[in-house]
Design a protein that fits this description.
The complex is a heterodimer of chains A (about 400) and B (about 350).
Chain A lengths: L7 H4 L9 H9 L3 H16 L4 E2 L13 E2 L2 E2 L12 E5 L6 E3 H14 L3 E4 L6 E6 L4 H10 L15 E2 L13 H11 L1 H5 L9 E4 L8 H4 L2 E7 L3 E3 L1 H9 L4 H6 L7 E3 L4 E3 L9 H5 L4 E3 L3 E7 L13 E7 L6 H17 L6 H8 L1 H8 L21 H5 L1
Parallel strand pairs in A: 8-9, 9-10
Antiparallel strand pairs in A: 1-3, 2-4, 4-7, 6-7, 10-15, 11-14, 12-13, 15-16
Chain B lengths: L20 H6 L3 E8 L2 E6 L4 E7 L4 E3 H14 L3 E4 L5 E5 L5 H10 L15 E2 L14 H10 L2 H4 L9 E4 L13 E6 L8 H7 L2 H6 L6 E4 L4 E4 L9 H5 L12 E6 L14 E8 L6 H17 L6 H8 L1 H8 L14 H4 L9
Parallel strand pairs in B: 7-8, 8-9
Antiparallel strand pairs in B: 1-2, 2-3, 3-6, 5-6, 9-12, 10-11, 12-13
Helix pairs in contact in B: 4-9
Classes of the chains: A alpha+beta (about 400), B alpha+beta (about 350).
Chain lengths: ~400, ~350
């Protein structure tokens, strides 16, 4: 029987309607010594008003430099079962679809070798096995990989790519987000498992500008589905929405950012040339409006959290790219970007930071993308710009 | 028992093997969807096939017992298929309408919290906090729990002018998406790291530690074979502690939570936006952080009473103006609100138009 700790502070977080993480930890603590000590240490954190974890020390599985994150207690004598309490990242499935049979098998392995605690999912999108000892890492890897599951990314590597639900269950998706995610993951296994970059690199792929996976804010490379044709209008369905109480002028036409719509009380009209494809009208009138024509993605680069120079959102680099297997154009672009970043990036410098440091021109020239007004909100305001020899030849 | 043979660089299984048959059949051919109630939607394919989705909240941290229970429920009603959303919700996928109500009944009986679809509060994106992170300035799961308990009705039944996306990051590294969320919390420190001079030479690389500081506050201290920190330049981000474990920054007396609001990632109507600082600091008060909940209620209530339909928090604030936001929420405005980092001058008012 695992050790039992009194947890008067954490117990206060078990009531209420939202499912309790404390209850989850207690369920695992009843079964594994590791989870019991993790719970005991967490109570201590709440009492001491601070974390009791520390980092440092490289752990992993043979042949890989990523997929496992070392974690250690700073109170190892008091909580010996979490003296080592490493995270294992399992590469999740595109779209986060699971079968019950796999989930049960996973639980059996994890109860045997680890704490029995998981995250579905981590912030990047891995299936997180939360807490195990160094000796258990090889057995866990053998159990998962022999069943067809591999480790995800960590450290200065390509991180586990993720995507929205896409065409699996969404009418708005312009691209096959699941397939792109799977293809990137398979194409760059070495870059994922053997960290050789200046720092981390994340991919997130979404089917449209609604961006249900925060691609534009949380990925070094944000792949956002879009289209080039007209929005097809079903006027009968427009009338149905109006009849059911939708104020089409107020809720749809007036909120259009490019003012490309009009409504005369009967017919909705869209000036497609001026549409910026923001998705507001389509999401509100999904039965009435449907994008048509050529489908593809905008490729944006550079978003990240605040370290070191402040948070960034991704910037449009390639306004439109077709997205069909075998994704040769996309992979060529990725390889070019990485080559430039590998060449010039400093330790712990994300690609977006490098673009700011060395200039967008150098980046665009290296990857072979022409300047286009779609890449900027506005042209520069200052008169301080460079001329290259190649500019004089033009 | 001998271990099975390990394989390397195989990647994850192919997604097609994990899709329910109705999705395999109608992949990329969905026509529209309808939100039937806050926890139930139906997608209709061009073929006429339908798939029902029942969404429930999750604390993200799940025990194997709970995962087995989810798997059992999926086997009973969903042919064994279940998925998770990017916000950690659990989604049960049904191809037969007759199973929908029995599933909902069982979920209710087992006390699952059903909802989160449409213009309302959804599950919270968050980080590990004190459960498993070395650099957490605040716990994350506890904040998620007290916020979601407070606003539970807005997940299960009530609606809001548009989606409200909460997020929690337990330090400024922001593994959670707080920099672009409607209402978000970030753990912050207020004192400079302590330098464990005797450990620096064994545990840290001096050049990379010097280089990681956003404000160039760290310099070598050759006499001590250690580092120096310029207290006037340090803004307590803790990045150096992640690079060099001999620079601990956790401080029970001075750590706490900041609240940022008005971010979004969608492109609908207006550009994606960063979250902006509205409460610079609330001292940690575990286990339930009541002051954080109170401050959030002020923001949330001002939003739902002031925003127009379809306006996200950030769109509402931009329409009324930040000066009015501070007026209607009653939150104090301080020196910490005025930016002095890399984009400061972009944030100063450059017009003579504003509200009193």
């Amino acid at each position: 029987m695992p050790k039992k700790y009194d947890t008067p502070l954490l117990d206060q977080l078990e009531g209420g309607p939202f499912p309790s993480f404390v209850t989850e930890m207690k369920k695992a603590a009843a079964k594994t010594d590791m989870a019991a000590d993790a719970l005991g240490q967490l109570e201590r954190c709440f009492k001491d008003n601070r974390t009791h974890w520390k980092h440092g020390g490289i752990v992993g599985v043979r042949g890989y430099g990523s997929g496992v994150i070392g974690r250690y207690s700073d109170l190892p004598e008091e909580f010996p079962e979490v003296a080592h309490f490493h995270t294992v990242r399992i590469n999740s499935i595109a779209g986060f679809f699971y079968k019950a049979s796999f989930l049960k098998e996973m639980c059996d392995i994890w109860d045997k070798y680890g704490s029995g605690l998981t995250n579905f999912h981590g912030s990047t999108g891995d299936l997180i096995l939360l807490g195990t000892k160094t000796d258990a890492l090889e057995p866990i890897f053998a159990e998962f990989s022999s069943r067809g599951w591999d480790l995800g990314g960590s450290g200065s590597a390509m991180r586990t790519p993720s995507c929205c639900v896409g065409p699996a269950r969404c009418e708005w998706s312009n691209i096959n987000t699941l397939d792109i995610t799977y293809a990137i993951t398979q194409e760059f296994q070495d870059e994922m498992h053997r960290p050789a970059f200046p720092y981390k690199f994340k991919f997130k792929t979404v089917g449209c500008a609604v961006d249900c996976n925060a691609a534009i804010a949380r990925a070094d490379c944000s792949i956002i589905g879009t289209w080039k044709g007209k929005i097809e209008i079903n006027q009968d369905e427009v009338a149905n929405y109006a009849q059911k109480g939708m104020d089409i002028q107020g809720e749809i036409v007036n909120l259009c950012p490019s003012k490309c719509m009009s409504y005369d009380g009967k017919t909705l009209t869209i000036n497609d040339e001026d549409c910026v494809r923001c998705m507001h009208c389509i999401t509100r009138m999904t039965k009435a409006l449907k994008p048509t024509g050529e489908k593809g993605a905008s490729i944006l680069i550079g978003s990240k959290a605040p370290f070191v120079i402040g948070a960034t959102l991704s910037w449009v680099i390639v306004p439109f790219m077709k997205m069909e297997p075998p994704y040769t154009e996309l992979f060529d672009l990725i390889r070019k970007m990485w080559e430039w970043w590998d060449e010039h990036g400093k330790n712990r410098e994300r690609i977006g930071e490098l673009i700011i440091r060395r200039g967008m021109r150098e980046f665009l020239e290296y990857i072979g993308v022409d300047p286009m007004p779609q890449q900027v909100k506005e042209p520069r305001r200052d008169p301080f710009y460079f001329w290259a020899e190649s500019d004089f030849a033009k | 028992m001998a271990l099975p043979q390990r394989k390397t660089d195989i990647g994850p299984p192919h997604y097609k093997d994990y899709l329910p048959p109705v999705i395999q059949k109608n992949f990329g051919n969905w026509k529209y969807h309808e939100i039937i109630n806050p926890g139930l939607m139906v997608h209709v394919a061009n073929s006429g096939d339908k798939i029902w989705t029942v969404r429930v909240a999750s604390p993200r941290l799940l025990s194997t017992d709970t995962i087995r229970e989810i798997a059992d429920i999926a086997e009973k009603y969903c042919g064994g298929y279940v998925r998770f959303t990017t916000r950690h919700n659990i989604e049960f996928l049904l191809s037969e309408e007759k199973n929908v109500q029995p599933l909902i009944d069982e979920l209710k009986a087992k006390k699952y919290m059903i909802g989160g679809i449409g213009s309302r509060v959804s599950n919270v994106v968050h980080t590990q906090g004190w459960i498993h992170c070395h650099s957490a300035a605040v716990d994350a799961s506890a904040l998620v729990k007290v916020i979601m308990d407070e606003f539970a009705d807005y997940f299960t039944t009530k609606s809001t002018p548009n989606k409200v996306r909460f997020a929690v990051a337990c330090c400024t590294n922001m593994c959670g998406a707080v920099h672009c969320s409607d209402i978000a919390y970030v753990g912050i420190h207020r004192k400079i790291p302590r330098i464990e001079h005797e450990n620096i030479k064994n545990m840290c690389e001096v050049p990379s530690t010097v280089a990681c500081c956003p404000t160039n506050a760290i310099s070598p201290d050759p006499a001590k074979k250690s580092l120096k920190i310029n207290a006037d330049k340090c803004m307590y981000c803790g990045n150096c502690y992640s690079v060099c474990p001999a620079l601990p920054i956790a401080d029970p007396e001075n750590d706490g939570v900041a609240i940022v609001v008005g971010g979004k990632v969608g492109n609908l109507r207006s550009y994606p936006k960063f979250s902006k600082l509205v409460v610079p600091f609330i001292k940690n008060n575990p286990p339930k952080w009541p002051e954080v909940v109170e401050a959030t209620k002020k923001i949330f209530n001002a939003y739902i009473s002031g925003a127009n339909k379809h306006e996200r928090v950030g769109e509402w604030v931009e329409r009324i103006g930040w000066e009015k936001f501070f007026k209607v929420t009653g939150l104090p405005f301080t020196f910490q609100h005025i930016d002095d980092f890399t984009i400061a001058r972009e944030t100063f008012r450059t017009a003579a138009t504003f509200k009193w």
